[in-house]
Amino acid sequence: MLYASDLSKQTGRLGKVRSGVGRKAVLKPAARNGRQTKAKPATHFNDQDDAFLTDVASLQEALQETRAELELARKQLLETSRFAGMAEVATDVLHNVGNALNSVNVSCSLASDRVRDCSYSKLAKVAQLLNQNADQLSEFLTTNPQGKHIGEYLMALSQSFEEEKAFLSAELSQLRKHVDHVNRIVAMQQNYAKLAGVQETVDVARLVEDALQINAAALERHAVELHRQIEHVPPILVDKHKVLQILVNLIQNAKYAVSEAKRRDKELTLRVACAGEDYVQIQVNDNGVGIPPENLARIFERGFTTRRNGHGFGLHSSAQAARDLNGTLAVHSEGTGRGAVFTLKLPLKPPASTS
Fold first, then answer.
1. How far, in Å, are 269, 274, 295, 337 from residue 334 at the CA level?
2. Rounded Cα gap, residues 276 and 329, in angstroms
3. Neighbour count for residue 108 (Cβ, 10 Å)
4. Claim to verify: residue 207 and residue 340 sit in the same structural domain
5. % pLDDT > 70, the chain
6. 123, 156: one domain
7. What is the pLDDT of residues 250-306, one digit of tens each?
8. Which domain holds residue 21?
């Protein structure tokens, strides 16, 4: 491969030989018969022409190699960004599953402790007394000091049974809820993973709900109040894994924004509506820290981040994914402390293929 220094040397050589390229042969008079004959061109011009053509060929080869390397680098960058976005989704999925499994563990521990602490040893003693006085049961229950308290004990025991039943039923219900949550998340991720890169007709509102489901545990933990403003829009033909990647990332960023704002009324609003006749738009609006004007132009740059532990891939890969879907991803903020609105626009119909 030719590098910049080689290109510079060859360009200098080209300047020197250009003056000799294309010169015509010189006519010189013959010495004896008076007829003019065509003289042979100078040998050094032929040599320079050959060198010039060789340098041109080398330059063309170098430029082709450079273009190929740049294209390869671009593809590798896009692939890295795509995997980074997929990693964001996978991380959120695992985080949610971990939270749900932790809740499962808590419910199991509470139920186990409650059952272990229940003491019904006196019930066996009551049964023994009743058996011993079976022949005079009526007299035993009405006149015997122990027998007279059996009714009260059984009433208290019945109430205790009802309380334990209610507690265990509630914990089992929570346990079932958490297990179902894990199953839904895993099934949804498997569905998206199998269909990655495949276009299919999908319900936009369903995609939004799936993205919220993946972030549900984090939103609940940070006490984020969620609002939905979802209008009816037609189904769209799209790679829904890429859309999910974008939405999960936008919701996650909104969660960080409202948490860093240190405000009590943490609000996140998702809007779905048609944008003209050709597009559907999904907006993620938060009342978080906002974006200063100097950062708005850089927000989608690869590697740009304002978070301490951020890597700058999320929004960059989301913007690239939107372009891959023939859509756009834009952001608006009134400034620091004023929140932000990210708007994803996707075509209602895929662009017509051109032959």
1. 17, 24, 12, 8
2. 16
3. 14
4. yes
5. 67
6. yes
7. 998 999 899 998 888 999 999 999 999 999 999 999 999 999 999 998 888 877 777
8. 4-74
Residues 280 and 232 in one domain: yes
**CB contact at 8 A, 277 and 269:** no
Cα distance between the two ends of the chain: 35
Residue tagged 């022949």 (tokens): 135
Tell whether 211 and 339 lie within a shared domain: yes
List beta partners, residue 237.
Answer: 201
CA distances from 96 to 182, 186, 188, 245 (A): 8, 10, 13, 15
Q: How buried is residue 121: exposed, middle or buried, by Cβ count under 10 Å (0-12/13-18/19+)?
A: exposed
DSSP strand pairing (225-230 vs 36-38): unpaired
Residue pair 327/343 in contact by the 8 Å Cβ criterion = no
- Could you tell me if residue 353 is inside a domain? no
Which pLDDT value is given to residue 126? 83
Per-residue pLDDT tens for 59-104?
677 777 767 777 776 666 655 555 555 555 566 566 666 666 776 7
Q: Tell whether 169 and 251 lie within a shared domain.
A: no
Q: Do residues 221 and 334 both lie within one domain?
A: yes
**Alpha helices per DSSP H over the chain:** 4-17, 43-117, 121-132, 137-143, 150-194, 204-221, 240-260, 293-296, 314-324
Q: Would you say residue 256 lies in a domain?
A: yes
